[in-house]
Design brief:
Length: 217
C-alpha cells in the first residue's frame, strides 16, 4: 500500500491542475490504492452504517453518509455539528484507516498544504439521482486547513461556485480516483453535486463514494 502510494506521489507525470487560486485537481491520484481504500470502506460501513441524515429543515438527504476519524459530521433537526459519537450506534466513529490518512496528507502536501492533519473524514454515498445542493462547508473551526476530497466509483458533475450563492458555478466531471484539494480563498466557496447519472462502475457498481478529509476541531 504505502509503496504504491509513494510511487504515485513520485510520478510527476500524473496531472495536476490548479482550478482556482488555492484549489488543485489531482487526476487519478488515489488509483494506485483503490483496492485498499475500498476494502477499508467496507469495514467502516460495517461499523458505522450509511444513513440518510435529516437536515434541520426536516428533509432526509438523498446522499447517504457515514464518517471515520475522531469526529464525524452529523445533521438532525437540531442542526449541523461535528460529534465524536455516532448517533446511530452510540459508539465512537471507526478510526481513520492509515491508508486514508496517508493519501489525504500526501495529496494536501502535493497541492501545497504541508502539515495537513485531518481529524474527520466524511463519507458520502451517491446512488443514481442523489445530489448535493449548493452549500458552504463552515462547520469546521479552522478555515486555514484545506479540505481534501477523493472521488470513487461512478463519475459526477461537481458544481463549483464562488463566495456568493449567486455566483455562477463552473462544472467539473470528477472520476474514480480523482482528488481535489480545496484551500485558500476557495475554502468557503459554494459547491455542490448534480444528480448522479446511472451507470455501472467496474468495482463499485451503481454508486459514487466521496471522501472528504477535514480538520474539524
Ligand atoms: C469546495 N461533498 O461533503 S466534495 C461535502 O462530492 C461535499 O460529496 C461533495 O461537498 C461530494 O460537504 C463535494 C468536494 C468539495 C468539498 C468541500 C469543499 C469541494 C469544496 C469546500 C470548499 C470548496
Ligand atoms: Fe461541501
Amino acid at each position: 500500500m504505502t509503496a504504491d502510494l509513494f510511487e504515485s506521489v513520485a510520478d510527476a507525470s500524473r496531472s495536476q491542475e490548479t482550478i482556482a487560486e488555492g484549489a488543485v485537481l489531482l487526476r487519478g491520484f488515489a488509483r494506485p490504492i483503490e483496492n485498499e481504500l475500498i476494502a477499508a470502506l467496507r469495514d467502516i460501513a460495517q461499523q458505522a452504517p450509511f444513513r440518510h441524515m435529516v437536515t434541520p429543515g426536516g428533509y432526509a438527504m438523498s446522499v447517504a453518509m457515514t464518517n471515520c476519524g475522531s469526529f464525524g459530521w452529523v445533521t438532525d433537526r437540531a442542526g449541523y455539528r461535528y460529534d465524536g459519537i455516532d448517533p446511530l450506534t452510540g459508539k465512537p466513529w471507526p478510526a481513520m484507516p492509515p491508508s486514508f490518512r496517508a493519501l489525504a496528507e500526501q495529496a494536501a502536501d502535493r497541492a501545497g498544504y504541508a502539515g495537513f492533519s485531518p481529524d474527520a473524514c466524511l463519507v458520502n454515498r451517491y446512488q443514481p439521482g442523489a445530489k448535493m445542493s449548493l452549500h458552504q462547508d463552515k462547520d469546521e473551526q479552522d478555515f486555514a486547513a484545506p479540505i481534501v476530497s477523493v472521488s470513487l466509483g461512478l463519475p459526477a458533475i461537481f458544481l463549483f461556485g464562488g463566495l456568493k450563492r449567486s455566483d455562477k458555478p463552473r462544472r467539473f466531471r470528477l472520476e474514480h480516483g480523482d482528488i481535489v484539494v480545496w484551500g485558500g480563498p476557495t475554502r468557503l466557496f459554494f459547491h455542490g453535486v448534480a444528480p448522479l447519472a446511472d451507470g455501472e462502475h467496474a468495482i463499485l457498481g451503481r454508486q459514487r463514494i466521496n471522501l472528504t478529509f477535514r480538520r474539524a476541531l
